[in-house]
Every structure is written in structure tokens, then in C-alpha cells.
Amino acid sequence: MTPNLSNFQFSSKPEDDMILIERAKQNPAHFAPLYKKYHDAIFRYVFKRVDEEEAAYDITSCVFVKAIINLPKYEYRGVPFSSWLFRIAKSELYQSFRDKKAKRTISIDSVQIGRVMEEFSIDENEHKREILLKVLPLLKDKQLQLIEMRFFEKRSFREMGEILELTENNAKVKTFRALIKLKALYAQHNPLK
Amino acid sequence: MIKILVNRTQPSKAEIAKRQDFNYILSALPKKNLLYSPWFYGAIGFSSLAGLFLFLLAY
User: Fold this and answer.
1) How does A111-144 read in b/e, with b if 16+ C-beta sit within 10 Å?
2) Nearest CA in chain B to A3
3) Tell me: the pLDDT tens digits for A16-42?
């Protein structure tokens, strides 16, 4: 039976998640509070990376099905449960790109473009913005993931490391390298250097 | 080719919440095969022993 969630208070403490996880390991129906807690975040993560909203809902469902199946293997080793779910989401996304069920997409808004241009120390204008959007897909996917997480989703290096299975320092170094690469691509494609 | 969507409208929190369906998630879980369950072998074992016992008792 699905537990009643109407009076459930969500907490961000990993210990509270652990209690729920241990209960869900005994009975998948007890996963409901975790589903309710993380559904929105996982959906938004997926939605930003696929072109169709319906595909994003389908992939989000697959993420939670996989999470329940693999829950007995989950052990808390300093990586928050949310990051473990994001890892599953990342792998489900790439599976759907391989199966051609979804198209790899970058969802970006003007403010985020401005943030990247600020990092490059260049003045923002329509033409420069277009060049940046043209060169973004030319990055390797791993580099693109880092740029996406850092500049478009404002994640900390620690969280990025947890999701991408890197150390915090490694995430920092790789993001810096990705930024240098993006800057080089931008310079190559900008006729008004 | 990677698609870039600028200033895309995101569904609201309420819209996303409306699409939550935990019963669907539970129904999508793979069903446990009875053959791999210890209960199945327990029941088979118990009924075999009971049958043997009744057989011996009858003769």
C-alpha cells in the first residue's frame, strides 16, 4: 500500500533520507516520500537536456524505477542520495539518446549566456551571443556537461563531482579546461577578434 | 547534432507535481519470479514431506 504523504515533512538532512531509504529497501511502496521529494529536481535536470517535455517525463519515471530496483545496492558513503539519483538520471538520459528516444538539448536562458560571456571578459551583444551558441555544441559532451552544470545550473564543484563521479578538485580543473576550450572555439569562430 | 533552446518555457512546479504517479512507478517494477522465491520451495518442500508422510501412514 502507498503511504499517505499528506502530513509528511521533508527534510534535507542525509540522515533523514537514510531512514526513508532503509524503509524503502524493505518495501518499495515506502519509496513514495523520496519520490515526492526528488521528482521535481530530477524532472528539471532531465527536461533541460531533452527537446520534448513528454520524453522528459518518461525518462524521469525510468530514473525512479531504476532507483527502486538498485536501492538495495545503495550505501551512504558521503554522496547524498540526490546525487545518486542524478547519476541514474545521467545514465538514463544517455541511454535514451542512444535509443533515439530523445534528442540531446541544451536549455539556456539569456542570463546564463551573459554569465559565460562575463567569464570570458567579453561585452555581450547579439552577434557575440550567436557565436557562443554556435560553438557550444562543438565541445565534447563531457566538457559540455561541466559547463551546463556550473554556469547554467549553478551547481557547486562538490555536487558536480558527486554527480559526475569526480573529486571536487578534479571537477574544478576539468571545468576550467572546458572553459578554456570554449574560449578557444569562440575565438576561432569570431571574425572580429 | 545538439539542439540549443534559448529562453525555453519551463513547466511550473504545480504542473510537474501533477504529473507525479508513484503507482505507475510501482507497476513498472519487474515482478518477482515465484520460482526464485524461497517461499515457493518452502511450500513445495512442505507439501512433498506431508505427501510422503501421508503415504507412509496409509501403508
Assistant:
1) ebbebbbeeeebebeeebbebbeebbeebeeebb
2) B22
3) 788 999 999 999 999 999 999 999 999
